[in-house]
Amino acid sequence: MCVASARPHDVHWSLHSYTFARNGQFSLFVSYLAASFGPAHLGKLIGIGFLCSAMVSLAQAPLLHFVLETMDGNFVYANVAFMAALGLMTPYGFWLVCRRPTST
Q1: CA–CA distances in Å: residue 18 to residues 14, 64, 73, 86, 93
Q2: Cα gap 22→86, rounded to integer Å
Q3: CA separation for the pair 25, 20 (Å, rounded)
Q4: Which of the listed residues 31, 43, 48, 95 has the most CB atoms within 10 Å of its CB?
């Protein structure tokens, strides 16, 4: 990956937005599975989910080539997509917490 030619500010912004989006996706995915299906099937469902994610991630190489060659290394649209995905998933995470039964 040709990160050295990018401006340092852009690289840091990309790194932080990617990290927040991936952590948000992982935590919401696992919390959904745990809340919906319980701990008995959690490992199997996480494995199936990660297998599907790995198959979709095969598109990363062509998308990276597209951004580096066609868009001259401008990752702004990808970063906006990461933040939009995280922004759309965050209310669902709060909803999961609010619907959780309280222990008495």
Answers
A1: 6, 14, 16, 10, 18
A2: 8
A3: 9
A4: 31
The H or E element that residue 74 is part of is none
Confidence (pLDDT) at 3: 47
- Walking along the chain (104 residues) 10 residues at a time, the average pLDDT comes out as 53 74 82 87 92 87 86 83 82 78 61
Distance of CA 46 to the CA centre of its chain: 15
Q: What DSSP element (H or E) covers 64?
A: helix 60-69
**One-letter amino acid of 26:** F
Indicate the pTM of the whole model: 0.53
The alpha carbon dihedral of 36, 42, 48, 51 has a sign of: positive
Please check whether residue 96 is in contact with residue 31, taking contact to mean a CB–CB distance below 8 angstroms: yes
Look at residue 2 in the predicted model and tell me its pLDDT.
Answer: 45
